[in-house]
Specification:
The chain is an alpha/beta fold. It contains 14 helices and 17 strands. The structure holds 4'-deoxy-4'-aminopyridoxal-5'-phosphate.
Length: 406
């Protein structure tokens, strides 16, 4: 069955509204995505019919909600093709997953002079937690450079790795440049030197099929709200070995086995890493989002989004006076740009008045902005419900900005 974007749009109630009298054109999907009715209904149903504390009660509601929560873990496992169910840990999102690993990994393995490698295109969520850990442990943060097109300089990875390198953490897809990094090449390079790899999949899991077994990453992290699910829920995938070896990053209820005032022993993974009452309703909502994405099929979604990217890149470039940041050969549906020397914030505000929601600023990637010598830019990022007509409206809005500043 061919992909019918107009039918897909019917599933998203928020898209039906107007903004300042114009139909909403939502092009800020890399920041967060809108929710289909199925996710809204699932969360509603949880709150109105099955809410109860998970894993703790023997009563009816507790058993129902626990089963739904654990079923979702299974859905995530199948979605990213993890070998074991207990390799899936629920967190509050990508940021908390990276912070958790940076803490636990730092406690267990990092000493003075050890090195962590990230890249020049990372989101702050994949920079700051490592920096904090390096400060705590007197370790060193190293950075893989990028080209002017926004591609990683792969040849440099081998040179950056030394006997002191303990971990490599990189994004799968850049939230600013759209670059799809060749993780299938990078992970084997790191593994040849016995360096484990964390993949930030916040911008990839909603666009391309992920197979962690094939990819052979050690850790993979993502957020529910960027994949049409609720906020406040995310995933930390880790190979079984790591979840066994690493200490927990938070203490409290659920993550324990036996607690005395002298000593505590911990639960088995994944619960060892799920301290306290988790966002179980969010997790079940994430399960509904996975069902929704799977019902459309990531292949169809990817093809549709790629067509949008090509159409938008062509049309925006034709407008003239546009500089696009991120021209990698393998790109996801994100276009970051500047219009002449017009300030990105001014442009964003004018576009907003025409109903066009784009992101302006540094996109939580200040070092990347510095790399390109700019303060910030405008980002249009597409999702499974965007249309060519919306890109035409985006182009009209860009023209309007140009006219106003002429
Ligand atoms: N990494 C990347 C590549 C991102 O795009 C984002 C969100 N913009 C994050 C990490 C952080 O995700 P969250 O805010 O959901 O924790």
């Amino acid at each position: 069955m061919s992909y019918n974007v107009y039918k897909v749009r019917e599933d998203f109630p928020i898209l039906k509204q107007t903004v300042y009298g114009h139909p909403l054109v939502y092009l800020d999907n890399a920041a967060t995505t809108q929710k289909p009715q199925h996710v809204i209904d699932t969360v509603n149903k949880c709150m109105s019919a099955s809410n109860s504390s998970i894993h703790r009660g023997v009563h009816y509601l507790s058993e129902i909600i626990t089963e739904e929560y654990e079923n979702t873990r299974k859905k995530v496992q199948e979605f990213i093709h993890a070998r074991h169910l207990h390799e899936i840990v629920f967190t509050s999102g990508t940021t908390s997953s990276v912070n958790g690993i940076a803490f636990s990994f730092g406690e267990r393995y990092i000493g003075p002079g050890d090195e962590i490698i990230i890249s020049a295109m990372e989101h702050h969520a994949n920079i700051v937690p490592w920096q904090m850990m390096c400060q705590r442990k007197n370790a060193v943060l190293k950075v893989i450079p990028i080209t002017d097109e926004g591609e990683l300089v792969i040849e440099d990875i081998g040179k950056l790795i030394t006997r002191k390198t303990r971990l490599l953490s990189i994004t799968h897809i850049s939230n600013v440049l759209g670059t799809i990094n060749p993780v299938e090449k990078i992970i084997p390079i790191a593994h040849r030197h016995n360096v484990p790899v964390l993949i930030d999949a916040a911008q990839s899991v909603q666009h391309i099929p992920i197979d962690v077994e094939k990819m052979d990453c050690d850790f993979l992290v993502f957020s529910g709200h960027k994949m049409y699910g609720p906020t406040g829920i995310g995933v930390l995938y880790a190979k079984e070995r790591w979840l066994e070896e690493l200490p927990p990053f938070q203490g409290g209820g659920e993550m324990i086995d036996i607690v005395t005032f002298e000593k505590t022993t911990y639960n088995q993974p994944p619960l060892k890493f799920e301290a306290g009452t988790t966002n179980f309703i969010g997790a079940i909502g994430l399960g509904a989002a996975i069902d929704y994405i799977s019902s459309l099929g990531l292949d169809g979604i990817g093809k549709h989004e790629h067509e949008l990217l090509e159409y938008a890149t062509g049309k925006i470039s034709e407008l003239g006076e546009i500089k696009i940041y991120g021209t990698s050969k393998k790109k996801s549906a994100v276009i970051s740009f500047l219009i002449g020397n017009i300030h990105q914030l001014d442009a964003g505000m004018i576009m907003d008045k025409m109903g066009v929601a784009v992101r302006t600023g540094t996109h939580c990637a200040q070092p990347l902005m510095r790399r390109f010598g700019i303060e910030g830019n405008i980002r249009a990022s597409f999702g499974l419900y965007n249309t060519r007509e919306e890109i035409d409206v985006l182009c009209t809005a860009i023209q309007k900005v140009k006219e106003m500043f002429r």
